[in-house]
Write a structure and sequence with these properties.
This protein has ten helices and no strands. The longest helix has 19 residues. Helix 2 packs antiparallel against helix 3 and helix 5 packs across helix 7. The protein is 62% helix and 0% strand. The two termini are 28 Å apart. The protein is mainly α. The radius of gyration is 17 Å and the shape is globular.
Length: 201
């Protein structure tokens, strides 16, 4: 199986080959975007993400086997143009249905871990929304983009030390009032299918 870097390199001579990058990553990138800006803006941001990626493919780092961090970095920068949509999404998190109502979902989706994560997300939504855009981008690439510190650094074009510093600061800011320790980020559990984007859904 070809790596993403091999496909992108091939697409320089055969543009149609880039469609495989879309097929490989549309679900994860779309899921990340949906959680950032909601369903109303996802189509615009998702389409623009892959269009920008296609146009900039000649500058892709061929040492990077996976294009996902690169694509999520592009998506994150595009989300900045949709701050109003993101603000609405955070308000929706804050007033979303209670965990008991969520339990009525399809059984395979209503796991205890998911309900705990949803409840914690609602509780912390105002504080996450109040983070600086840089800190919030870093947090959500880690929690929802499922990127490592090194991949986040590549996606945002910053040193790894900056990523570590931002996440440490975020942990302190999200810690419960009166707490003397930084909060863990396990409340943003990454279920395999949670937030997956499905074309036409």
């Amino acid at each position: 199986m070809s790596t993403d870097s091999e496909i992108i390199l091939r697409s320089l001579d055969d543009p149609g080959a880039f469609a495989e990058i879309f097929e490989r990553h549309v679900r994860s990138v779309g899921g990340y975007i949906r959680r950032r800006v909601g369903t109303d803006a996802i189509e615009d941001v998702l389409s623009e993400t892959f269009l920008v990626a296609f146009r900039k493919r000649a500058g892709y780092d061929q040492d990077a086997a996976s294009a996902r961090p690169w694509l999520l970095g592009i998506a994150t920068r595009l989300v900045a143009r949709h701050r109003a949509d993101e603000a609405r999404q955070w308000r929706a998190f804050a007033v979303s249905a209670s965990a008991s109502e969520a339990a009525a979902e399809t059984p395979h989706l209503a796991s205890d871990a998911r309900l705990d994560a949803d409840a914690a997300l609602r509780d912390l939504a105002p504080r996450i929304a109040a983070l600086s855009s840089r800190d919030r981008d870093t947090l959500l690439l880690h929690a929802w983009g499922d990127l490592t510190y090194e991949q986040i650094a590549d996606a945002l074009g910053v040193p790894v030390g900056t990523v570590r510093s931002r996440l440490n600061r975020v942990r302190r800011k999200l810690a419960p009032p009166g707490s003397h320790s930084a909060t863990r980020l396990t409340w943003m559990a990454k279920e395999e299918n949670d937030g997956a984007y499905r074309a036409g859904a």
